[in-house]
Structures are given as C-alpha cells and as structure tokens.
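Tokenise the fold.
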Amino acid sequence: MNHHGFTQTFPMEINVFKVWMEELNKGYAYVYKRDRKFRPICHINMEKLKKVKTDHETLIAMSSYMTQYVISRALIPGQVENWITIIDFKNVGVTEVPTKLIKAMTKPMQDYFKGRLYTMYIVNAKWAMKVVWQIAK
C-alpha cells in the first residue's frame, strides 16, 4: 500500500479532534513544547500505555492521527521537518513492556513517515532494560 492509500484508510482530517478526544485524554501520548531547534517533542508514557484497554487498531489510527497533526500543525516545510520522541519507562519492568503494541504503532511510522524522527530518547529505564536495548541495537 502506498502513502496515499494508507492515509485514506482512516479519518485524517485534522478537524476530527473530537473523535480522538477520549483517546488523547488517556495521556499515554502527547506532544509538548519544542527543542532549541524548534522540533516538536512527542512523549510516550509506557506506564499509561500498558494500562490502556484499547484495541491495537485504534491505537495505530490514533498514533497516525497524531503524526499527521504534528506534520500539518507543528512542522515548517524547509525549516522544521522532523521531531523528537521521548519514551518514558518509569514503573515499567522488562517483562511488562507491550512489545507487540509498540511494534504495531511504530510500523506505520517507519513505512509511511520516513525521515521524520530526528532522535528518540528512552528515559527512566531499568538497568536490565538498558542491557536488553544495547544488545538489540
């Protein structure tokens, strides 16, 4: 499926905020402030994400909506064209990480929004998770 076909599979109009308001209010993913180069900073709270009782398809559509929102409202073509992501693992153990969900949410980002992620920071990770991350890299 190409990018245009992908974006036609769910409601992508930015004005459909009310559709996603309940999901956004759960607080597991949000965009807050900018870095010194004016790139938007996207936060993902893994503790809240693992508690969410929403199906994977809704979460994928939600993350795609957020991405489209950031692209249309927070980026400046030719000047600011990517963002930073911070993933917070506070109070999340190695065995509690929802890996299937993370893969499901990041797959569309890797396929259809290439080159948009400037860098990703993992914060509040336990030492065992840091070791696993270093091996996986």
